[in-house]
Amino acid sequence: MTELSPLFETLAAEFEARHGSRPAGFWSAPGRVNLIGEHTDYNEGFVLPFAIDRRAVVALAGAAPDAPALARVSSTFSDQIVELALADLAPDALADWSAYPLGVAWALAEHVSATSGTEARRALPGFALHIHSDVPIGAGLSSSAAIECAAAVALNEFWQLGLAPAELARIGQIAENQAVGAPTGIMDQSASMLGHTDAAVFLDCRSMNAESVPLGLYAEDLEILVIDTRVSHDHATGGYAERRASCERAAAEMGVKSLRELSVADLPRLQQRLDDETFRRARHVISENERVEQTVRLLETEGPLAIGALLDASHVSMRDDFEISVPELDLAVEVAQEGGAIGARMTGGGFGGSALALIRRPQRPALEAAVLEAFTARGYRRPDLFVVQPSAGATMKGHLDD
Ligand code: ADP
Ligand code: MG
């Protein structure tokens, strides 16, 4: 056996304690932070997320010889080991955290059925999979996509499916939409699959074209500070689905397939046709699409110091038009801006989670102190502050333990 890094050694021991054998390999996928482009993905618009230096790692091995068609999943996050016959994998059969990895197994098995037939699906071997993630849960950093993508790359290699990164992102989204029941777009999985060091993923959610956009943070000595308010959110039941419905209503009312078809020039027409609330929801999405395109253009022509005003404007739009911010997020953004951040905004689906601030590296200690002080003064829960590095996406080939 080759020598393992300390993390893989820990994971191998965790795997063995739960599944009774050594894992065959290790695969990983990161969480993500969305630089700009919020609630635009399911409106066929633009997003600009980046993969971060916090990852879900999975260890996987073939099923035990006495139960060859079993899917078995575990996580350091839970004491529970969930097992199910591969043939019984179905959205209705899945619940709680295991719906993420088993939902991915189900979506891949469905893909095999659709492309190679039910015989091929029946021939898929069982597996045991263990998850170890340092992506914080519910902080808006997409711990869910990290797990989905790590499970997807692991099973893609174990089942020899040969799917490409963008296809695996789609598998992760299908798992999240249908097995978990959260109506989220493809942004999180795309960032997790396609990220590069010091770059963001510019994704057109209509054409599905993805492009790597260098951020140039290192060269300018900039950092992205995340302020996790620790106000929790729940996309499956919260206002997320409601916002999505408003966007669909606005598009239908305007006779277009999605809000992507409309531009800022159309806003006066929308205002005449839509009720005030639906109009403001649509205005957020339409103006946000434009801000993402402008951000990409500015990154390419002038670099990261030029994008601050767009980040700030994005926050105002989410706070006032889309109404998905909370007082803790607004405070984090305000304090960051007052403390000299280049730009700041809430990030992620909203109703809690994190804000990000683009800052000069030497500013960080003073800014962190100011945020903590402001939260204490308001009697809010102590936020969690950390820097994220734009990082590489999922490992397509596992580190095999042979
Ligand atoms: P996030 O913004 O972090 O993606 P979600 O609500 O979308 O928040 O996903 C969080 C859920 O993902 C958790 O409630 C849990 O079910 C699952 N999850 C996250 N991390 C792990 C983990 N390490 N092991 C098992 N399940 C996890
Ligand atoms: Mg999520």
UniProtKB/TrEMBL annotation:
GO CC annotations, alphabetized: cytosol
Annotated ranges, domain Galactokinase N-terminal: 13-60
Gene Ontology biological process terms from the UniProt entry: galactose metabolic process
Keywords annotated in UniProt: ATP-binding, Carbohydrate metabolism, Cytoplasm, Galactose metabolism, Kinase, Magnesium, Metal-binding, Nucleotide-binding, Transferase
Enzyme Commission number(s): 2.7.1.6
Residue ranges of domain GHMP kinase N-terminal in the record: 104-195
Annotated InterPro entries: Galactokinase, Galactokinase_CS, GalKase_N, GHMP_kinase_C_dom, GHMP_kinase_C_sf, GHMP_kinase_N_dom, GHMP_knse_ATP-bd_CS, Mevalonate/galactokinase
The family this protein is said to belong to: Belongs to the GHMP kinase family. GalK subfamily.
Protein name stated in the entry: Galactokinase
Species this chain originates from: Subtercola boreus
